[in-house]
Amino acid sequence: LVADITHKKQEAEALRESEERYQLIAKCVPDLVWIMDLAGRYSFVNTAVERTHGYTVDEWLKLTSREVVTAAQAARDAVIMEAELARATATPSERNLVITFESEERRKDGSIFWAEVSAAFLWSDDGTPIGVIGITRDITERKRAEAALRQSESLFRGLFENHAAIKLLVDPETGAIKDANAAAANFYGWPRGQLRTMNIQDLNTA
Length: 206
Known about the structure:
This protein has 206 residues and is an alpha+beta fold.
């Protein structure tokens, strides 16, 4: 009996130390770390939630996953979870695979922002799915940078295609013509599609 009690105390102590290490790691991670059950009820979240979503830890743990994303995202999440759970159940070797997707998240003040979510299912010893663990990263700045890049590329494309002067995009190493504007097509007498298959040397010998 004494040995049994000692063993249980050792297990409890090991579990406590493991939980403390987990809590410490979660505090050091700048992104949102969370655990929820399959119904979307949270059992753990780190303090990053105050910065990313504006909730305290206690407030967040009273919410469900559907309440912290847009309605459209909640619908997408349901489809993703159903598909991934079916795949993982059918293929046990893939149970620990991490899935990553973009998510429309909702802050406490109602504002919406884009995040990148990486998540994996949690399984019991008998192979039953019991929850999901994940990391949510705010990618607002990345989205802004991507939008700015698209706008810049669109502006360049407009200037390139509509410029009155002859414009060619040429690979500096091979001389292959990557693109040509309408002025170049008119000047050389080749359709733009044909020019894109040619080399700059072809024009010099034409």
